[in-house]
Amino acid sequence: MTDSHDMQTPQDEPAEGSFAERLDYLCRNNPRGPLSNPQVVRMLEERGLPSFSTTYMWQLRTGRADNPTKRHMDALATLFGVPQDYWSNRATASVVNSMINRLNEFKESGASPEQLHRQLESFTKRMGQGATPEALVAQLETLAQLHEAGVTATTLKRLQDARVTGIAMRAVGLSDEGLTAAAAMIDQVRRLEGLPPEPTSSES
Asked: What percentage of the chain reaches a pLDDT higher than 70?
């Protein structure tokens, strides 16, 4: 027998926002996914998070069981890299889903699933520190625009990893517009990494 959730596409949003629908959505759309029920249980165990049986995971994901403990809800939120109120707050779920959809688009430009998952975790951490969801979504939109303009994730990573001297040498001869564009790319990478606009002494 095929469950109804098996008929959904990876882009489907949780319709009613129930715990089961949101859990199924994360299993399908987490950058490391799609993840099967056994995979989720195994990943919980590997990370030392509160776990449960594969059967119970199936029940939670299909709505057969609708009484997860807070301990298990928090463990699943940690595993998927989303805020703990993802399960109960419709606004949080909506903005996080938008971030996940955007992040998944960068797979085509060379970003690995693990890199994208870590970026989602970084966004969640920054939300917990007071960053507004709107600001984070705006950063993703900017990165998406760079991607559409032909700036790949590999290029951004190369800019991020390059020595300051190397970047400075490459900047020689650029026009004011070119320098502005290069600075904007570096600033964008710093924001996505949760770093301040200007380097601190601890980074040197």
From this structure: 68
Whether 63 contacts 24, CB under 8 Å: no
Answer yes or no: are the C-beta atoms of 137 and 95 closer than 8 Å. Answer: yes
Write the CB contacts of 80 (distance below 8 Å, at least 6 apart in sequence).
26, 30, 86
- Phi/psi of residue 171, each to 5°? -80, -15
List the helix and strand counts (H, then E) for the chain.
10, 0
- Residues 90 and 19: beta-carbon distance below 8 Å: no
- Longest CA span, the chain: 65
Radius of gyration of the chain (CA): 19
Long-range contacts of 129-137 (CB under 8 A, 24+ apart): 133/91, 133/92, 133/95, 134/95, 136/95, 136/99, 137/95, 137/98, 137/99, 137/102
Q: Mean pLDDT, to the nearest integer, of 102-123? A: 84
Separation between Cα atoms, residue 31 and residue 62, nearest integer Å: 21
Record the tokens describing residue 80, joined without a space: 């998927």
Span 139-153, pLDDT tens digits: 777 766 666 666 555
* Residues across the chain: 204
- Helix (H) / strand (E) element for 177: namely helix 176-192
In angstroms, the CA 182 to CA 187 distance is 9
Distance (Å, whole) CA 21 – CA 123: 22
Q: What's the DSSP call for residue 5?
A: G
Residue 52 has pLDDT above 60, yes or no: yes
How far is 124 from 118, CA to CA, in rounded Å?
10
